[in-house]
Each structure stands twice: as structure tokens, then as C-alpha cells.
Amino acid sequence: MEAGPRDTDQDAPDTQHEAGRLSPDGPDELDVTPEVEVELRPARRLRIWQLAPIVMLAAVGSLMFAFPLAFEFGDGGAIVAMLGLLISCCAAGWGMMAARRVGHTWPGLPARGSGERPDWRVIALYVAVCTGLVALAVWRVARLR
């Protein structure tokens, strides 16, 4: 007599075995479900503590730029307006760098690391808009004198 468990299915002559369902190493490769990778980290987003200083700098810079231009505060208005423009541009640059760090891109441009080339027409449009805005700002400040 054996002390361990017996495979009674093998001993029975009338039992049908499913050959190929199990291999000596375990289940066949065809029966295994594919693995799914799940990202455990949360999606990268700009948080309020990242956005608050950018928005505050942009608001202060915009007000410094707009009020001297609108109400012409004497001879120093052009200097204050240019300083406000500089602060606004710094806030915009800071915001763009923070957005890029979390993975955002400009509309029309491919995502970083995708291997796609940006469309030259989109880049030309961005350059034209920025050049136009800077030209208008400089023209307005120069008109204060």
C-alpha cells in the first residue's frame, strides 16, 4: 500500500483525459490570459500650489502693464509698463515650463518623446502671433513718450 494520494483517474480504464491541457510545467501557453500593465502613479497634473504663483505673477504683471498704458502716469509710465510686460512674460514662461514638466504640449505640436516632427505651419503661426503681440506692446509703450 502507498501512503500518499493516488491518481484515481489514471487507474480507471474508461476515463477520457484531455491531452495537452496540462504540461509538466503547468498550464499550456495558449490558455494563459495576457498580462495587463497598470500605471500605479496618478496622472501628472498641475497642482494648485504650482498654479497659484504663476497666476499671481501674471495678474500683477498685467496690471502693471495695463494701468500705465491706459491712464498714462506721467513720464515713468513707460518704464512701469515695460516692467509689467517683463513680469507677465516671466509668468508665461514659468507656466509653460511647469506645463511641459507634467507632460502638456502646445496645441498642434506632438507630445514630447513621441518621435513625431512638429508641423512648421503651427510653429510659424505661434511665432507670428508672439511677434505681433510684442510689436503691439512695444509700439504702445513707445507712443507714451
SSE blueprint:
Layout: H1 8-11, E1 22-23, E2 26-27, H2 48-71, H3 77-101, H4 120-143
Antiparallel strand pairs: 1-2
Helix pairs in contact: 2-3, 3-4
Order of helices and strands: HEEHHH
The average pLDDT is: 76
The number of E-state strands comes to: 2
The total count of helices amounts to 4
**Strands across the major sheet, in which order?**
1-2
Q: By helix and strand content, what is the structural category?
A: mainly alpha
The Rg value, from CA coordinates, equals 34 Å
Q: Which percent range describes the beta-strand content?
A: under 5%
- End-to-end Cα distance: 112 Å
Could you say which overall geometry the principal axes of the C-alpha atoms support?
Answer: elongated
The parts where pLDDT drops under 50 for at least 5 residues are none
Please bin the fraction of helical residues: 40-55%
> What summary fits the major beta sheet?
2 strands, antiparallel
